Amino acid sequence: MPRTNRIDISDMVYHVINRANARMQIFDEDKGYTLFEKVLEQAKEKFEMRILSYCVMPNHWHLVLYPKKDGSLQLFMRWLSMTHTQRWHSQHKTIGSGHLYQGRYKSFLVQEDEHLLQLFKYIERNPLRAKLVQKAEDWKWSSLWRREQGNEKQKKLLDEWSIDTPKNYIDLVNIRADEKENQELDSLRHSVNKSKPYGSNDWTNKMIDRFNLRSTLRGSGRPRNRS
């Protein structure tokens, strides 16, 4: 199977995911989550990366990134993944024991309209969907908690969204999924499973043609990821 082309241009929004090797649980206590967030803060400052949203789960994480410079996404992600891996092994006294992540990160372009709002809800609802909390904003290791309950220093990790935020956004994140929400979830998962841009059909096809992605999408029979 051909490897997915890396798109790395500025002023476009990317949904980025990475998972633990063999789906092991790499975040099992506060100090593990805190370690990752500290590395994320340092990576943001080092590469001037705009972070719109994120969520750290026990065995994977999601980021929504909005790079300012061409080529900075790969530099940011390489440093983030390598630095976190090194510090995780140091924290757990397992240096030299193997890979922490299952492979290179996945990244997908996202259209800056209601599709981006759907992505924010999808990512920040993750802990609620996994039944880790009663309310999504109670999961401390996410952008939703930082925006709503973090101090000024913690909030500086996050950048302004490139779309308007509904006044009832938190209610939308916490609301019980209906048929429309389930369709959005299936569409997002399809984007992840097929490594394709997430947006309207017309926009998605334009991105596929613009960045020559069609060959990497064809026949992409990847296993479904439940995230």
What does this protein structure show overall?
The chain has 227 residues and is α+β, with helices and mostly antiparallel strands. It has a single domain (13-203), classed as Transposase IS200-like (Alpha-Beta Plaits, 2-Layer Sandwich). It has helices at 30-47, 72-92, 114-124, 126-129, 143-149, 152-155, 169-174, 179-194, 201-210, 214-217; strands spanning 13-19, 51-56, 60-65, 106-110. A 4-stranded antiparallel beta sheet has the order 2-3-1-4, sandwiched between helices. Strand 2 and strand 3 form a beta hairpin. The radius of gyration is 17 Å and the shape is globular. The two termini are 23 Å apart. The model is unreliable at 218-226 (pLDDT under 50).
How is the secondary structure organized here?
Layout: E1 13-19, H1 30-47, E2 51-56, E3 60-65, H2 72-92, E4 106-110, H3 114-124, H4 126-129, H5 143-149, H6 152-155, H7 169-174, H8 179-194, H9 201-210, H10 214-217
Antiparallel strand pairs: 1-3, 1-4, 2-3
